Automatic annotation (TrEMBL):
Its main location: cytoplasm. It comes from Pseudoduganella lutea. The gene is ddl. The active site is at 26, 154, 290. One of its GO terms (biological process) is regulation of cell shape. It comes from the Bacteria. This is D-alanine--D-alanine ligase. It catalyses: 2 D-alanine + ATP = D-alanyl-D-alanine + ADP + phosphate + H(+). GO terms for cellular component: cytosol. Cell wall formation. Residues 112-312 form the ATP-grasp domain. GO terms for molecular function: ATP binding; D-alanine-D-alanine ligase activity; metal ion binding.
Length: 321
């Protein structure tokens, strides 16, 4: 049984809003995440209340007079800096990254540019539009390759292209969801994720989680609604390689200016055990299937304790004017 926090600390948080639902393609998952967080915080004696920005206005959010909020929203209008900016304007301290890191983390292209600039390993890529010469891109990046909308999460709109004649259809799927489309070299290897907690010099990696999906398909359905995916924490992997993955994940997090908590997805190339950074999730899932709670459990941090630890980091990022 996890230790409860003191009554004094529970009261010190004041009136807490748990923001979940929203209007993104990931609304359903966000409701599962937020419901779990709400229950966990209430179970610790915290005065926590649900708030769905997909159904209620910013005026109503201000009228609630929350002392701080826990953001359990995923995807656009919750994870991309827009809500973070509104909370800065309203003066409501919030969990997770600020406006810039949230916005950059949601944009897989800008993320990759900054990581490459910092000398961090990430797969080669090309940016596509309706005029792109797809066979030339396939020749440049090599096959197979991955095509994805750069501003969606939860593996929505992603296609693996094995042959040039599949490229156009994959592009069309992603283009329905996004103005820009990202093509990325496919890294043959194992899939991992690294949760990071804390800010700046205090940021630390939690144990690495390996994701083993049926036929390598870690898609939306398998992520949230089936029990077919296997997770290993710790994985069967040399400790030095795990430590290196943790190191580059923290470096990747700091490079983007992330705060509070996030999850960094990493591929480990089979041929040489070299890790490649895929993306960062600045508002990761907190469902029963989610990976940050799993990594926290591996270091003895219960789901409830994790929620409280994240809530403790809620703050306004813009310095007082």
């Amino acid at each position: 049984m996890s230790m409860s926090i003191s009554k004094e600390e529970a009261q010190s948080f004041g009136k807490v809003g748990v923001l979940f639902g929203g209007r993104s393609a990931e609304r359903e998952v966000s409701i599962m995440s937020g419901s779990g967080v709400l229950e966990a915080l209430r179970g610790q004696g915290i005065d926590a209340h649900p708030f769905d920005p997909g159904q209620r206005s910013l005026g109503e959010l201000e009228a609630e007079k929350f002392d701080r909020v826990f953001i359990a929203l995923h995807g656009r209008l919750g994870e991309d800096g827009t809500l973070q900016g509104a909370l800065e304007l309203l003066g409501i301290p919030y969990t997770g990254s600020g406006v810039m890191a949230s916005s950059v983390g949601m944009d897989k292209i800008t993320t990759k540019v900054l990581w490459q600039k910092a000398g961090l390993p990430t797969p080669d890529y090309a940016l596509l539009d309706g005029q792109s010469d797809l066979p030339a891109v396939a020749a440049q990046l090599g096959l197979p390759l991955i095509v994805k909308p750069p501003h969606e999460g939860s593996s929505i709109g992603i296609t693996k292209v094995n042959a040039v004649d599949e490229f156009q259809a994959a592009y069309d799927v992603a283009a329905k969801l996004d103005d820009e489309v990202l093509a990325e070299s496919f890294v043959t290897g194992r899939e991992f994720t690294v949760a990071v907690l804390g800010t700046g010099a205090a940021a630390r990696a939690l144990p690495v989680v390996e994701i083993v999906a049926p036929e390598g398909k870690y898609d939306y359905q398998n992520k949230y609604f089936t029990d077919d995916v296997q997770y290993f924490c710790p994985p069967q992997l040399d400790e030095a390689v795990q430590a290196e993955m943790g190191r580059i994940a923290v470096e990747a997090y700091r490079t983007l200016g992330c705060e509070g908590w996030a999850r960094v997805d990493v591929l480990l190339r089979t041929s040489d055990n070299r890790p490649f950074l895929l993306e960062v999730n600045t508002s990761p899932g907190m469902t029963t299937h989610s990976l940050v709670p799993m990594a926290a459990r591996a270091v003895g941090l219960s789901y409830e304790e994790l929620c409280v630890e994240i809530l403790r980091t809620a703050r306004l990022k813009n310095k007082k004017v």
